Amino acid sequence: MPIYLDNAATTRVCPEAAQAALEAMTEGYGNPSSGYALGQAAAAALKEHRAAVAGRLGCAPEELVFTSCGTEGDNWAVRAAAEYGRRKGRHIITTAIEHAAVLEPVKALAAQGYEVTYLKPDRSGHVSADALRAALRPDTVLVSMMLVNNELGTLLPVAEAAQAIRDAGSPALLHCDAVQAFLKVPFTPAELGVDLLTLSGHKIRAPKGIGVQYIRRGLNLRPLLTGGGQEGGLRPGTEPTAQAAALAAACAAWQEDYPARIQEVKEYALESLSAVPGLEIISRGDAPHICAVSLPGYPSEMLVRELSDRGVYVSSGSACHRGKPSHVFAALGLPKRTLMGVLRVSFSPESTRADVDALAGGLTEITKTRIAAR
Ligand code: PLP
Asked: What terms describe the molecular function in GO for this protein (predicted)?
């Protein structure tokens, strides 16, 4: 078995989700739009799966739309919110450490004339609510802030952002990328006070190819795609019934004590990794499953390769930015040697202390056999 410590990139599908997908694909395979019994059974199952996800998220099933992934949800939220507020203004606030799925559509809007304020993190990877308060303007139409950063594991002040928007009487919609937060940290969309919230299945042991978009009741958004009337016309395309079944099963299989279990393994990792010669802890992570470290002078890509040769898998930062230093670590203002040696370690309920021992042992071995660059 590989030692997989890159669970922020993706997770191994849990048996319950795989079984649910298999059954939906081979038995309940009707098209939910078909009027005959097989189709109607698929429609009924989809309704149940939506209710199961809504139950875990803490919202009404009608507030959820199934999408293809977190990237689709983030893109949709940013574009649709800008469109929604087009008569009110052209100012957007986001953070410098959002995922590319938010930053890229924001960049596209900037090219169309929107003004963008990027809130910068401090050295620990935290963004201040006061900075957001100061950045709000009467023409701000969108604030997009993630709940848990995917490379640092830090928590961002989303509920405080909602309060700031309310206090300012701002027309801005608040979008939250909660892809790394769902099931790992406690929240509901109502507690956060968000208008839009994005989830992705493959981070919580469901397969790739399914996301969920929360849209606050009463908010009328333009769809990203046009076509048939599925998902109330908001997300046309034949519904991903097998993926939805798997997502609902993964939610049901996620046990109450998982976050504490994951946190315990991470604490052990932070302690063990501190003993690796030269290793620096970059972020302990507020969320239970992500931390980041660096071996200054050892390029991340080399470390990832050498660890991979030993059957240990970690990331050199976000898996979406292979090859170049991540904008998230760059935003922390780390010295270049530290920046180039960053590793993200991320855990799942399956992670064990033995996995951590293999990682710490592998890194120690590398420091003994390879000389650090100056
Ligand atoms: N947002 C965050 C914070 C993520 O970590 C990811 C995935 O890495 C995404 C969005 C994109 O999700 P997906 O891979 O489902 O498109």
From this structure: cysteine desulfurase activity; iron-sulfur cluster binding; metal ion binding
